[in-house]
């Protein structure tokens, strides 16, 4: 038995054995052997880089679940939504998750026999999606240092890829990639291109190289074949194509036939202008050249044209002393046909960026081409000038991003709000405008996007188009002054040699195959005919505007802040009180029309900006809110997935912004160094901002609407997706609506005179085309003992129904108006030592200037107060009245007694008994009346006579 068990143990290798990369474990002699040519091995590793369409690799599972969120439920994305379309799916070259209003989890279990590494390449461009990775052991306990790799960084919209590495421990490891869409609609997909894991158990064989790659002996990975070479599966080297009749892109499994050249295989360009301002047209083949010009019927490269006068520059530009067009120097202008010249007296250049003649790419524009793996396209720049327009280049791989960008340092207007119409309606003022004319010609699936990038707001997808689009003009209003980079990106979504781009198409719900050998790219093209960016600080001037001319100066001077320019340009005048000068350099805004009133409740500061110091008057009431003007954080509703994952929104509010603004920071940052992590960190400063918080394991047991204090959040709590909800304070009023903003019905009660603060962030996004707004209702609550209580709508625990317009209720005693003279009740004390205390008690609906009851001591006075005099007079009158009544009734009683006695005497004299019969003498007839008649007169004197004996 011992011998048998020993033999069996030699035949069954231990699971702790692992070979190095490039080797496999030979079960015959129980040793590691080198892989032969045409194969590769990771040793104790796994490499996944090719995914079968609509089928997850073995060992991977995908789970999709809904989560509770008020604005997603309000938009019809509640529990009844079909989340299956938002799960993780295999899309040929990628694993893709669309995020959406669902939570999707991709899980893979792997057992490591020794410590190893996980490396995956991903694309994460959408900030409306939370993307996190977590590695756990068999007991579902997170591995150490999870904070370093849990939150992958964002990637750019322009096809950028990033690689993430994770340390794994020996034993069972559960790997989970999770996406959670915070928007109601379809999001940009999260893509994973490859996954590599080292440290797993031995492999008993080497894997063959796929077609288009090769390997020598002992290879860890296979190498792609160079251009114009190919290979079959399990190849040890690449075979060259026929250089005359065939060609092949990099990593091709076969050669392609070179077709006859056509007009689509070359392009026209102009030589730089010479000293005589002359140029000529020349033609060059598109690189790399894949056609044949020696076949019958093929197009030949046209000869250079005769030298001719250089084409005019674009407006605001001139050749100057060089051979290229450059923006005119400062304080000069040009229409493009003439040299730059100074503006006439009393005028100033109207700067902008106009491109309508595409002879060369202006200095303020740039072009680039990025392959799906993030590398630069071998064909060079992605855009080619063509005289009347600029178009995307050809011969790039499917899925490549072709970028055209224009940089704007800033705008000359500050924006704001203006009053229009007889009704005094308010509307926002734009700081500038970007307009362009384009055409999209695609035989299959393609996408053309317009992007806006700034240092403070990051990258924003403004608009996108797909399929074929006829020539059209698009206009975009910039509502907030900042430095921007505006970009146009074109992507052809087709099946390339490696099948990569079909994954992107599938992830976007598109798809398609490149069946014509790659020549479909001839017609897949985006064209831009002209671009115009107005009111910029830099660039060139195509015209001049009137301006103020100082008599002691040789040039124009802009009017100081708070002043407007007179129509004749001879001087500047101060704007009326509580108005600001907006767009002072626009001809239509010359004169006092350039001064626009501040929003309700706001005051102009030196004529340059409208703001409030948290001390203002509305109607007959005065409000002092300075005690509330410190940043306050409020806890939103918790969002739970079915598996128990939780998230919530944290709002930070700075009421008036006179002190420290509200800050929302992203703590989810990763990188190889501290400097890299610091560069990736970002924060938002605004009146109101919001961040998404992922709680740790610590006790964060707060309810909806509660404010946060020190120690409420533990160190394992992370924040991400910080956005501004209110960059500007537009109005402070008691009205329930302002512009397109409105207070929800839940926060409107006629019994309260609430104050409303209206905020706006005019940055349009794909989710919020009009930007984001916030309305804060401030209500007087005398019963509020603490500083304040901020609540969110009961029907929308996230503060919003659509993710764009937010409402808050702030109850505080500090929100009560200041007490006026008539709001105090006077109570006087007794006179002590010739001093009398007078107490002034404020009414409940107002707030005194000081928290204590005001008491004043005054000298006692001998004058009887009017109230006391009235009391004494009434008391005396009542006493006299009672005395009169008593006398009246006493006299009535005396009269009755006299009448009675008279009746008794009269009866006794007439019927008396001589014998002294008392009984007979006492019998009297009944009186008819005990009272005197009105005709009876009282007798003053009565004589009584003694009876005769």
UniProtKB/TrEMBL annotation:
PANTHER family: MRH DOMAIN-CONTAINING PROTEIN (PTHR22727:SF15), PROTEIN CBG13728 (PTHR22727). It is found in: Cell membrane. Pfam families: GBD_ELAPOR1 (PF23031), GBD_ELAPOR1-like_3rd (PF23032), MRH_ELAPOR1_9th (PF23087), TNFR_ELAPOR1_6th (PF23091). It comes from the Eukaryota. Belongs to the ELAPOR family. This is Endosome/lysosome-associated apoptosis and autophagy regulator family member 2-like. One of its GO terms (cellular component) is plasma membrane. The chain crosses the membrane at residues 870-890. Residues 929-949 are annotated as: Disordered. It comes from Frankliniella occidentalis. It is a single-pass type I membrane protein. The gene is LOC113207059. Residues 612-818 form the MRH domain. Keywords: Cell membrane, Disulfide bond, Glycoprotein, Membrane, Signal, Transmembrane, Transmembrane helix.
């Amino acid at each position: 038995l011992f011998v048998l068990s020993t033999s069996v143990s030699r035949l069954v290798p231990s699971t702790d054995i692992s070979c190095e990369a490039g080797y496999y474990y030979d079960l015959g002699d129980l040793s590691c052997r080198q892989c032969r040519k045409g194969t590769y091995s990771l040793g104790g590793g796994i490499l996944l880089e090719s995914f079968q369409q609509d089928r997850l690799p073995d060992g991977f599972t995908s789970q999709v679940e809904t989560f509770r969120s008020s604005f997603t439920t309000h938009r019809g994305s509640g529990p009844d939504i079909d989340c299956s379309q938002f799960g993780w799916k295999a899309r040929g070259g990628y694993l893709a998750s669309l995020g959406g209003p669902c939570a999707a989890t991709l899980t893979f279990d792997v057992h490591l026999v020794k410590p190893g590494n996980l490396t995956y390449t991903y694309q994460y461009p959408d900030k409306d999606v939370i993307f996190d990775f977590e590695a756990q052991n068999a007991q579902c306990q997170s591995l150490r240092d999870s904070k370093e790799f849990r939150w992958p960084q964002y990637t750019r919209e322009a096809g950028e890829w990033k690689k993430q590495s994770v340390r794994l421990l020996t034993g069972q490891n559960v790997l989970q990639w999770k996406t959670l869409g915070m928007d109601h609609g379809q999001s940009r997909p999260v893509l994973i291109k490859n996954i590599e894991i080292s440290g797993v158990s031995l492999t008993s064989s080497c894997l063959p190289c796929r077609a288009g790659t090769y390997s020598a002996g002992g290879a860890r990975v296979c190498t792609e074949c160079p251009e114009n070479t190919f290979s079959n599966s399990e190849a040890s080297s690449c075979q060259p194509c026929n250089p005359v009749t065939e060609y092949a892109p990099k990593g091709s499994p076969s050669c392609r036939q070179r077709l006859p050249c056509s007009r689509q295989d070359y392009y026209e360009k102009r030589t730089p202008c010479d000293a005589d301002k002359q140029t000529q047209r020349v033609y060059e083949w598109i690189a790399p050249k894949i056609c044949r010009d020696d076949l019958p019927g093929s197009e030949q490269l046209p000869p250079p044209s005769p030298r001719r006068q250089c084409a005019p520059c674009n407006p605001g530009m001139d050749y100057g002393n060089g051979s290229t067009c450059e923006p005119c120097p400062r304080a000069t202008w040009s229409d493009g046909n003439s040299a730059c010249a100074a503006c006439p007296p009393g005028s100033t250049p109207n700067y902008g960026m106009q491109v309508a003649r595409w002879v060369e790419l202006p200095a303020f524009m740039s072009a680039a081409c990025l392959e799906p793996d993030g590398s630069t396209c071998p064909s060079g720049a992605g855009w080619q000038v063509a005289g009347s327009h600029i178009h995307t280049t050809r011969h790039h791989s499917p899925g490549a991003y072709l970028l055209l960008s224009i940089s704007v340092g800033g705008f000359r207007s500050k924006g704001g709000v203006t009053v229009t119409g007889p009704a005094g309606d308010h509307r926002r003022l734009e700081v500038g405008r970007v307009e362009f004319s384009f055409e999209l010609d695609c035989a299959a699936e393609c996408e053309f996007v317009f992007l806006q990038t700034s240092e403070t707001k990051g990258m924003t997808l403004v608009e996108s188009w797909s399929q074929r689009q006829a020539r059209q003009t698009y206009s975009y209003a910039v509502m907030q002054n900042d430095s921007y980079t505006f970009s146009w990106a074109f992507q052809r979504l087709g099946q390339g040699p490696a099948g990569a781009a079909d994954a992107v198409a599938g992830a976007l719900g598109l798809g398609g195959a490149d069946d014509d050998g790659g020549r479909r790219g001839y017609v897949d093209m985006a064209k831009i005919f002209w671009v115009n960016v107005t009111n910029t600080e830099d660039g060139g001037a195509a015209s001049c505007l009137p301006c103020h001319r100082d008599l002691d100066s040789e040039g124009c001077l802009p009017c100081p802040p708070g002043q407007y320019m007179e129509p004749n340009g001879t001087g500047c005048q101060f704007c009326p009180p509580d108005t600001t000068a907006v767009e002072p350099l626009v001809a239509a805004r010359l004169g006092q029309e350039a001064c626009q009133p501040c929003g309700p409740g706001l005051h102009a500061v030196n004529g340059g900006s409208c703001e409030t110091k948290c001390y203002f008057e509305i109607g007959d009431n005065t409000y002092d809110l300075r005690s509330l003007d410190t940043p306050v954080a409020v806890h939103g509703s918790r969002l739970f997935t079915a598996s128990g994952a939780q998230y919530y929104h944290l709002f930070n509010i700075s009421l008036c912004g006179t002190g420290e603004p509200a800050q929302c920071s992203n703590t989810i940052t990763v990188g190889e160094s501290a400097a890299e992590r610091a560069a990736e960190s970002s924060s938002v400063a605004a009146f109101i901002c919001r961040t998404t918080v992922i709680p740790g394991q610590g006790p964060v047991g707060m309810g909806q609407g509660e404010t946060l204090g020190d120690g409420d959040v533990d160190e394992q709590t992370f924040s991400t997706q910080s956005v501004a909800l209110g960059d500007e304070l537009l109005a402070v009023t008691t009205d329930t609506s302002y512009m397109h903003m409105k207070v929800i019905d839940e926060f409107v009660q006629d019994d309260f005179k609430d104050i409303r603060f209206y905020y706006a962030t005019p940055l349009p996004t794909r989710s919020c085309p009009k930007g984001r707004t916030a309305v804060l209702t401030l209500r007087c609550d005398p019963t509020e003992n603490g500083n304040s209580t901020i609540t969110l709508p009961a029907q929308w625990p996230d503060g919003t129904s659509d993710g764009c317009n937010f409402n808050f209720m702030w109850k505080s005693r500090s929100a009560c108006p200041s007490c006026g003279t008539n709001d105090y009740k006077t109570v006087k004390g007794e006179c002590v030592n010739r001093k009398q205390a007078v107490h002034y008690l404020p009414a409940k609906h107002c707030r005194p200037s000081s928290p204590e009851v005001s008491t004043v001591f005054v000298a006692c006075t001998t004058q009887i107060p009017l109230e006391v005099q009235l009391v004494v007079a009434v008391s005396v009158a009542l006493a006299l009245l009672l005395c009169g009544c008593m006398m009246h009734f006493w006299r009535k009683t005396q009269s009755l007694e006299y009448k009675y006695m008279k009746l008794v005497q009269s009866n006794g004299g007439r019927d008396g008994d001589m014998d002294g019969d008392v009984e007979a003498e006492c019998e009297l007839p009944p009186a008819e009346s005990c009272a005197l008649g009105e005709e009876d007169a009282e007798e003053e004197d009565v004589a009584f006579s003694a009876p005769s004996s």
